[in-house]
Design a protein that fits this description.
single chain, 6 helices, rod-shaped, disordered N terminus
């Protein structure tokens, strides 16, 4: 009971101090977001000083954020000028002078940590606000002197702003060269493919034309052969007709006078196969010959005994 009575004056003193502090705090018509958030975090009247510190930190961060949002356009514009001011065909010394002109300070060329043969320029664009936010810039060149890239990274950015590598503010010269080389190879392959396709198309057209000409020649040759065979046949038929209608020469005429029976039959054979069609009557084709009966002793005199001959 005595201990409880001793603690009561101390508690009363704390209450009076808190009331006095709250009475001395200026009143605001509307609390801002930072004040509301800090009040929600430190809601007890015993956490007054923590709430004040939270409010101070929050308002300072908000002020820094507003400052960075205004300064960000300058930083991005300067980074874009560096990106556009450095061209692929520049030497490292020329690129260094261009960057020094834009940034207004001396920039050393050093060896790359990951490759002793490469040369780099490392620098940064800092904000004018009370913040560690900055753009880190690296320009790199190969041992041959050709520029590899100019890359920019965002470091310690405010919340909502992208962190790390910024491709929109960077240039990859080495990658551009590789892409152009790949594109040239692709175009060369396409051109070669088109030339091959065109050559094959022309060769196919020539082959089709040659086949068509060959077919025409073969058809014309076949037509000529048919016409020639028809002419030969007609000529042969005409010759046979003339030979059939023409009087036979004296040495081949089976109807010539004074011929023996055997000679007449032999000459009759020039008209075809000689067939015996009756007693002493012989035919070959449309021609024939008939002999009379045999004389005394079966002998027929030369040129005698001829009944008909045609």
């Amino acid at each position: 009971m005595h201990a409880m009575n001793a603690a009561t004056p101390a508690r009363l003193l704390l209450v009076l101090v808190a009331v006095a502090v709250l009475a001395a705090t200026p009143k605001v018509a509307h609390a801002d977001n930072a004040e509301t958030e800090c009040a929600n975090i430190y809601s007890s009247w015993l956490q007054y000083f923590e709430r004040k510190n939270c409010l101070r930190v929050r308002r300072k961060a908000e002020e820094t954020r507003r400052c960075i949002s205004k300064d960000l356009q300058r930083m991005e514009s300067l980074a874009a000028e560096i990106k556009n001011g450095i061209r692929e065909r520049m030497s490292l010394a020329d690129a260094k002078r261009a960057m020094q002109t834009l940034l207004g300070r001396e920039l050393p060329i050093v060896r790359a940590k990951d490759n002793a043969e490469d040369r780099v320029i490392n620098t940064e664009i800092t904000t004018n606000c009370a913040s560690a936010f900055q753009f880190v810039i690296q320009l790199r060149a190969a041992p041959s002197g050709a520029l590899k890239y100019v890359k920019i990274w965002s470091k310690f950015p405010p919340s909502g702003y992208p962190d790390g590598y910024r491709p929109a503010l960077s240039r990859d010269f080495e990658g551009d060269r590789r892409r152009r080389q790949v594109e040239r190879r692709r175009r060369a392959a396409e051109a070669a493919k088109k030339r091959t396709h065109e050559r094959l198309r022309v060769e196919a057209a020539k082959r089709r034309a040659a086949e068509a000409r060959s077919k025409r020649r073969q058809a014309e040759a076949a037509k000529k052969r048919r016409a020639q065979a028809l002419r030969k046949r007609r000529d042969m038929l005409a010759l046979r007709k003339r030979e059939a209608l023409a009087p036979p020469p004296p040495e081949k005429d089976h109807c010539a006078p004074d011929l023996a029976k055997r000679e007449r039959i032999r000459r009759l054979g020039r008209f075809g196969i000689v067939r015996r069609v009756g007693d002493d009557t012989f035919r070959a084709g449309a021609h024939g010959v008939g002999f009379a009966a045999k004389g005394v002793g079966g002998f027929v005199a030369k040129g005698a005994g001829l009944m008909f001959c045609r």
